[in-house]
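Thread title: Can someone regenerate the structure for this chain?

I was given the following input by a collaborator and told the matching structure tokens would be attached. They weren't. Posting the sequence so someone can regenerate them.
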Amino acid sequence: MPSDRQSAVPPPESLVHCDGVPLHVHVEGTRGALPPIVLEAGGGAIGAWWAWVQPPLAARTLTIRYDRAGLGASGATDTVSAAAVGARLDALLDALGIDRPCVFVGHSLGALYALHYAATHPKRAAGLVLVDPTPLDAHLLDRANRRLLPVLIPLLQVLRGLARTGLLRRFHPFAALVAGLPDEARREALAAIADPRHLAGFIRELRAIPAIQAELAALPFPAQLPLRVISASQRGRRRAPAADAHPSLRHHRETAARAANGRQVVIDAATHGTLLTGREAATALAGQILAFVDTLAP
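Best answer:
Regenerated them for you:
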């Protein structure tokens, strides 16, 4: 493996073959004193969701976002598991010449992938940031998610059929989710959610959530790894300013407490989605990530 300090900076946009699957990768920033930052998008989301967050991070260090296999511009796969995602991510870091510990940042379901990777590849992890994470344990899924998933999966199946007709390229019921992204990123995200192959990958990820949670439950929690858990203050239609005001926020606080150097931060006036897609909330999120990464500098 090439030396991280001596390797050339990877190209900004590329397809990198990892564990037999081409992954669409977007790299910004330069190598420096701070650890590289790897951004893992949420379930059914692509790297473009990080478009507001990545540039402030890239002003300080090398940053990597990518589309998981089966999503966006990456190649397809029938295997959805935390272990499979981790194997491809490991191959991606090797291909990019990243041989120093990184900070792994995961949003929503991506937080579970990031946690699993950090737990199974401790030498590659300098720190971990879980952004409004999906519950680590299956029994902690809140009632809203328990109601949502049985409706969302059939809806995605219908949308996948419509996507084959091209209809979703003119209108998509999920377009509002990415409306706040920068123009290029929004177009990229809209193209993905109008693609039947991407929608199939989204469905596979949602169905795999219990299995992914089981993978995590079988591992020791990486309690010695520096950890930040960053939560959105707004849950559904209700604002929950205190960490005890909503089950998800309590779970986030308890997750942070499992690490020796863990802390929860709540970003005010943010929702689960706008933490990434709203410019103001995403800027605040980037600031919190950098504040954490600064504590890890040599």
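Confidence is low (pLDDT under 50) at residues 1-7.
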